[in-house]
Structures are given as structure tokens and as C-alpha cells.
Amino acid sequence: MKNGHYQTRIRAIYNFISDNLYLNRPDIEIKGEQFNSTLLFGLLTGLNRGKELIIGEPGLGKTTSAEYVGSILYRYPLGIVWGSEISGHPEQTEEKIIGRPHLGELNKGREKVVWSDFAQIPVKIVDEINRLPETKQSMILNGVDRGNWEYLNEILINDEYSLFATANYQDRGTNTIIAPLIDRFDCLIESRHPGSNIAYTIGKEALVPHSLRHPQYEKELHQILRGDKPYEEKMTLAEGVCDLFGEYLKEQLGLEGLNKEERTHINEEMLGLNFDIDTNAFVRMMLAELSFCHKYGQKRSVETCEDGCHYTGYLCHHIKNCASNRLPMSMRKYAQALAWFLEDDGVDLEHIRLIIPYTLAHRIQWKDSYLSKKEGEGRNDPFQIYLVKAAAEETFQRYNEQREYLLEALSVGYRAFAGEEVTPLEGDHPIYEEIKKDIGVKDEKPL
Amino acid sequence: MEIEHIIQKLWPRVRKKHFYPQLPLPVVIEGGEDCALEIKSKQLSISSAFYDKLKEDMDGEEIVEAVLDHGITHYMYCPWDFHTHLTLYNEAKKVVRQKDQAQRAATYFMDVVADTYCVKEKDTNIAALYKNLPKTGVHEVLTALYEKIWGEDLGSGGHEELVNRLSRIPYLDRKSWKESIKKFTEVIQHILEEEWNDEQMSSHREPNPMGEHSLENYSLEEIDQGLREFAGAVDDLQEFKETVEDLKEELEEKGYGAGGMGRGKGNPLDANLLYYMKLAESYTLPIRKLPIEKTGYLHPHAHRPWEIGKPFADIDVWTSFGKIIPGITQIWTKREGETHGEYEGIPDCLIIIDSSGSMINPRERLSHAVLGAVCACNAYLKNESRAAVYNFSDALRGNKIVLEFSHDKEQIYQAICRYFGGGTALDLDDITSLLSRADNPDIFIITDMQITNLEKLIDFFQRIDNRVTAVHLGHNVHTTRFKDGMAKKKNISLFNVKNKEDIPKIILGKVKEYLTSPAEWR
Amino acid sequence: MKNPFEAFHHTGARKREIPLDTILKSKEETLSKILTGYEDLLKNEAKDLVWLMQYSTVIKAYSIAERGIEGLEYTAEDIEEFCYALDHSDQIPYLITGPAGIYISALCNHAQEQEICLHLRDLTVKINLLGYRLPTNKKLMVQGNVGDFTGIGLDGGELIIEGSGKNYTGAGMKRGKIVVRHNLGFNTGHGMTGGELMVGGRIKGLGKIVGGKLYERDQLIFPNEGIKPFYV
User: Fold this and answer.
1) Considering only alpha carbons, which residue of chain B is nearest residue C24?
2) Are B390 and B256 contained in the same domain?
């Protein structure tokens, strides 16, 4: 698909942010092009309505990268994005995050909710989410997952939104992110140090009013968001101001953001990109290794995998928990977004191999023995991401070796599922057992 | 340059064919005309001289694509990693017993596997390439083999007996590679010997047209990982030792010293130490996480609705909006916060290891006692504590090593791996002296308890308060005496090991316990 | 329910087969047939996994082995594969060296090739009864060490052992030649009536030799002043 028009605009946004706002060093390569992972995934998150967790050392641009991406893609002036951000600290309350009663109406004895900017606008940023106590994290689960925000007896449902959350590494004062919340994030990215030479140039330019700010439009948007109108009406009005801001961006900076219709259209284009056969089979193979347990039926974090199992050579032996169903959804979304961005006709192995580490790193719990073996190895990525990269490469090697046989097994699976009398193929890998389970054949391998 | 343009043009297609290997764009070098390809740390380099020579007989794009197919398949399939390369070399060496010949056998085997895989699984011109390559010596045999197993006319022939035997080897069955390379090497052994003798006479070596395989192909990290996996996979220490000794020069040139990478040349590689070091890496404990601890103060945790009758003191005026109305008013529930704490100090560790005649010589066979000691040391060193070693045989006659507390891994390993093989007696003054140099260190003692001055040792342990883990092998009157002597001491744990293989796990279990409860030792 | 394998409806046709696949497949099939013959031999001969080395049992086992390999097409390499499978494979539930040796001897004797070379250096087990009844015009070379009763009843063929043997080597040989590069055990040449037995290393002990010639390190030690034929 060589439409190119939207992709050109997104590339222009990437280049603008990279050259002017979020100075960085490319750290990933795909299809012969080099990109910075934070910026690339930030754009992909903004485009596919994803949820991204950005980690990194303090002061390396975790929040700012998200702010710039959100501001330009959704055409909200930066001041509005700043104003809507939630910061993670123990004294956060529901009233500050989601909404509060209208005080005037409350005095009259009527319930009316004043929704927070965070709940309303489609660019949602939670800064230092791991400083929120766990109870507060639970409070935003539904909102983070579905864009549904409830307060008193009212509900606000976001049509579209992208969520960016930042987290520092563990230190005094941070908590863990609860498992249900972390599973809801589509991807985990590190915002890295750009290197001493680029870092030196940051802030060298004289301080000027930020190019993404527009006080007038910010004021107008602020008034709209604080108004009394129904949410849908507010969003329509806001979109009008965003159009104006978009024109401003185009005139002043040569940037074209996206309106809601365009964002929806892009999403449809992305969804139309199919996985090729190899990518399809490889992802299934990966998922099999992350969810299979020969002894207990499936992987469970409360059950220990013993040594001596036939499958100790696979990932299932090295992990504690089972892959959730959100994992393939995240993989699919981001792989399609990446393929769309690169103007490829479909999703292939290169796309998925790039995406997997970032969509899986935060969802997997490795066994201590595996961690201790790997932590001394040299790497260029944070440990979580490195582990998944290494694991994905191992699984890919297995796929490469038995590709033909696996494709045949899946084909036989199709025929068996369709009712044909065929014998499923036997193989060493968990995927063959999964195929047999799907077609109703019992696993007879001894425990 | 024409060849560069061809590479640029073909590279995306070739990458796609091989499922996108993580390799940089290949480059052109002014190499010899006899060797098509060089692979160094994942960088493929095609020789322009080779290309020019072959261009007379083949289309330029076909040449480049075939060469790239070959190089990429080595990366993606065989050998894939350094561990596989070492394993193949090791098996070939069991047949030919000579380093160069074994290396060559491994190289040829890997070429056969990679090219056969490529011909079967991918759309490739490798067969055409071989048709136009010179066919002398072993390459003549291999080309004849390719004719038979690929079903292509490559302009070779002959060597029927050899080819018949070679064609029965399952090259594409990875699980059989260890046996397959042995069979392969057996068949071509006499040719390898002839080749080698000719080279000794003429001091000239015919290069492999499809490139050599050596440590140059791998990065230091890959070598490190490969050695670790190889240490765990070999049947005994001698195999590992032999292979590492063979590759000593190349490893040292790469800067791979016994203490780890990057130590530079000049550190002679000790294969025994390397073996235990690599094996111990499979028995590591993770670095301790920051403990979660209570902060000691209450913080507002959550709101809950205020009910009539509940106290007013915790009402949150702001979220209640100044109203005292059931359903609107909210009160705070407070909870003691939890946050990440700081690391407690970890004590140092004293290893007391018995190297008398009744214990295994760690330089001849795998000694699980030494492995356990090394694992314990690693765990303490990793947590930035120090380790000391008291290695004893007949200590009163001077058969002992007393290594002071230090962080120097190599020295510690040397001390642990030393073997005296004499009588068994401790010099308690040495131990007392060592203990005085650290603040209540943990003690690990590994012995078969057949110690001549066992009573003194028992007496000594009864007087100290350090945490002691004693691992003894076998069951005899001495172990019973020791057990009875230590019965009332809570700081002493005793393990009788039936299977030597359990020693590292036992020691690590105890270390883990100690490391997760460091405050108790104060 | 939607078929979860829908995307693979049209895949499944395997890519090209190369002659290597055919060779390996044929090798597996032949090995399988050879193994079947061996299992039949064991079923008949080795009840309760016990087999007694006796004159009559050897003859009976050999005829069963011959029946088992009748009609089978195989090469010397297939025999070597079988030897290897005896030592390493899970396919063979149990290895009893007596019947195994007889079976291998039958295979060698009825192979198409006149010269057979078995590379057995890597085997951990030493096979007994190799070379049993090796006929005239057959040459069997074994690379590696062998077990007891090697070359017994040799019937005109040439048996070369590039290694050592154990006890009762050449027992009852009638004609032909046995060459052993290294050492032999006890009762060497016991009951031999003809042929030549040449040992490159040491012989631990001789059996009751009737006829033929026996050499130790190029020295003729039978017939010899010091050692009389058994019948004298």
C-alpha cells in the first residue's frame, strides 16, 4: 500500500520532534531505517490508541516525549496537555484524577460532576505512575483499560484516547505497579540518554515561548473543558479549536497533525494490514511457549515448573506466569501500526520481531534462576527488554528450523478442525500439543 | 563499484528470504580471489577479487546472492552460536586428535550443513557457485557429495565410496550433529591428514573458498555465552580443558582472560579456572532486590464514605466539599506506607575447602565440592562482599593455601582449585587469623570430615558465633561425631551429601537464606 | 466456532525434496527392517533376556538370523548403522551381544559387497561373535575393538580387526585368515582346525588348537615345538 500521504505527515512529525524537541539517538533499525524507539513507539501509541509505559532514569525525557507526541498528533496545545497530566504521589485522590462534584450544584442539593481534564481529553499522561499507591492504581484500572470514567453516578466514555505513563526505576518512595494495571499497558519503552554530545546541545538555544504552546487556544479549550455542556458536545467544540491549532502548527512549524476523522481512517488502514503466514505461525509459536504447561494444563504463577519436564528447553520453563490475552492484541496493534508507518503491504517477521520485546517485557515474570544467569550478560537495553529480545531470538531460531513442518502441522490442524479425518503431526515444541488440544486430540506424552 | 550496487539491490530481497537476520549491510573488501567471504562479528564482507574472477563464468547478481545466502545461513542456522561451533569442533577433535584438522573438519561440516539447508529450504544459486569453484582436495569430494545429495550437476564426480558414506549423514537434523560430524570427520580423515601434511611441507595453505570459521566470527559476549553453555554441556572437565587449551591463543588475542573479558592480553588463560567459572554461572543467585519495608508513618491511604457515628477527626474536608452529609462526606483511612528500603550489609565469606587425597582433584575431574565453593564465592562477590579461602590438605606440614579476604575473583578461584592430595589436617590458627580480618564472616566448610584433628575443629566451632554451613561427603564415624558436636549450635547447619551433584544447590540454598536475612547476623 | 487455523488453509505443501531426503528415508526404512529382523531373533532366542553361548544355540540363532534378513536389500553402511543403533538408539530395547553378533555376522555374510568395513570405534559395547562363518571371498574389516568368539567357525573369508579382541577368538575356524592388530584374550584359537590367525599384539592364552597357524607379533607360535596340536 503506497498511499503515503498520512505516513509522510507522521514522518514529518517524527523528524520535527527528533530534531527540535526530543533530541535522541537512534537505537533500533528496521527495513534499513534507523529510529529512536521512544519516539517511534510514542507515535505508534498515539496513532493506534495504545497505552505505553515509559521507563527511564530521571530527566531523560520520558514525560516530555509523550507530551510532544500527544500535543502534535491530537493537536492539543501543550498547555492543555500539561494541565491534564496526573502526577503520581500518595496524596492523589479520585477528585483530582477523575472528577469532582460541582460545588454550586452541591450546595443546591444536586449531584453534578465536573470532570477532570485528564478524563476528558484524548491525550492522557500519568507521570510517575509507580508513585501512586496501589489503591490509587486500582482506581484508574477501568479508565486506563477502556476509557470509562465513573464518578458519583455519572459515567464518561472516551471515544478515543492514548495513554502514556512514566515510571522511574525503583528507589525509596516508589511502589510496584500492580499486575492488572501493568498488563493493561500495550508496551514498555525506555527513554534513554542521548549520549554526551547530543545531551550537551540540549537547552543551548535561548529560551523562547514553546513552539507547541498557544495561550489563546489553550484558554478557549480550558473554558470548553470546564463548561457545562455534555461531553460529546464539548469534544466537538474542542475539535474546532484543535483544527485552529492545527492550522497554526502548519503555518508556523510546517507540521500537520491529525483530526479525529483522519485518526480513525488511519486506524482502519492499520487494521486492514494482514499478517503473513510466517508471522502468524511465529507468533503462535511464541504464545505457545509463554502459556503452555505439560504438567498442569497451562502456565500459572502459583504452580512451579519442575526440572525433568520434557519441555525444559522452552520459555515455559523459565517463566512464572502465563501470557495474557492482551499480549497478542498488543502485538497485533503495534505490528500493524509499524507496518503501516513503514508503508509496507503487510506485517512480516521483521515487524513482529521488533515489536515483541516491547510488548512483552513488562508482562513476563522470569524465574530467579533465569534472571541470575542472564543479568551478567552485556547488553544495550534495559534488562527486562533484553531478556525478551534474547528469548524471542531463541524462539525464532526454533521457528526457522522447523518452519516447514510447523506450517504443515497448522495446515493439518485446519483440516482436522474442519472435520476431516487426519492425524495431527507430532513434534517436540509445545505448539504441536496446542494444535492437538484445539482439535480435540489427547496428549499422550508421559508427565 | 558494481558489486556494491548489486549488494544494495539484493540485500533487502536476501534478507527477506532468510527472515530478516539482524546483520548489517555487507561490505566489499579487497580480499584474495580464492576466498569469497569473510564473517567478522556479524559483518559479512565479500571479496571483490573473488567476484571479479568468478564473473567470467557467472552472472554478477547470482554470485553475490549465492555468497550472501551462504554467509547468512551460517548466522541463522549453522553454527548459529559459538557453543554449537565449539561442540562441533570438540566432536571432530575426538576423531582426528589434531587441532588444525579438527577445525577444518568443523568448517567443512558447517559448510555442508549450511549449503544443504539453503538449497533445500531457500531459492538459491549456491549450486551454480560450486559448479564454478575450483575442485581440489577435500573440495573435490565435497562437490561430488553435493552433486549426490542435491541432485545437481556440478561438474565433479568420483570418490564414490567416500560420497556414499558421506551422503548417509543427516546434515539437517540438528540433534544428530554431534554424531554426524564424527562420521563426517572419519570419512574425510585421510584427506584432512594429507592436506595438513602438504601444508606443513609447503608452508602454504589453500583457503576455504567459502570462508573460514574461527573466533573472529564472534563477539566477546557470544564467546562468553558459548563457553558457559559448553561448560555445562560437556561430559567432563578434560573435554572442556582440551578445547580451551586448543583455542587459548585465539581467546587470549581476543582479550579473553581467566578473570573475565576485557582484561587484555598478558593474562594467561587457565582452562580449569575458566571451566569452574563458566559452570558456576549456571548456578547463580539473582542480585538481591531492594527490600520492601514499612516507612513507619501513616499516610492517607484511601477515602471511604463517612457514616453517622464515625469519628469526625479523619474527615477530608476538601473531598467532602465542606458538607457533613452521608453519601457526600468522606473520611481518610490511613495506612502505614511501604516503600523500597535500602540494602543491608552482607558479611564476608570464608570458604574452607578440603583438598586431601580423598577428595577429587578438580583439575582432573569435575569436583562438585569446588563447584559449590565457587558458587558461594560468586554470590558473595556479586553482593560486593569479600571472600577468603582456606584450602587445606595436611596444613600442619604446609599443604595449605591461606588467601586473605579480597574481591579478586581470579585469585579466589586459583586458591579454591588448588589440589594437594595429601593428608587431612587443619591449622586452626590460620582460620582464627582469617576470621579476625573480617566482621563476623559467614563460613562454608566442604570436607569429607576425615580430618585428623577433627576434635579441635569441633571445639573451635562450638566457640564461634559465625554462621557456618558444613557440607560433608559420605557418612562415617567422623561425620556422626561432628554432627553430635554441633547439635546444640543454632548457627551451624550441617548437610550430608549423598550425591555430589547436590553440593552446589545446597550451598546456594544456604547462601540465599543468609543473603535474605542479613540483619540477623549482627 | 471459527476455525483458528483458517490462515493456514492453503499452506502445508512441503518444499522441495532433495536426494538427501530420499537417501535418508531409504536408510531409515532399511534400518527399520534390519531392526525388525533382530527383534524377531531376540524373541525366538533370548527368552527372559538370557542367551547361552553354546554350539547349538549359535547355529540355531544363525539360521533364524538368515531367515530374518532374507530378501532384504542393504549395504555395508546399513550394517554399520545397525551396529551404531545397537549402542546408542532408543529403538532397540535391549542389546544382547551374542545374538547381536550373530545377526551382524549374518548380515555381513549375505551382503552384496565382497569387502565390508565396519567402523565400530565409537561403540561403548564390544560385540561378540563377529565374523561367524565368514565365507570365502568375503573380507570383513572392523575398525575398533571386538568382544568374545570373534571369527569363530571362519569359513574361508578374511577378517581384519583394527583393534583388540577378547576370548575365544578364531575358535573352531576351518579356513581363511584372521588378523588382529592388537591384543587377544584367553582360549585363542580354541578348536581351530585350519586357516591363519595373526595377532599384532599379545595373546593372553591359547585354547586347544587342532590345526592351522597362529602368529603372535610375526612369530609363528603354532605349530611350534613348545605347543603341540590338541589331538597329539
Assistant:
1) B168
2) no
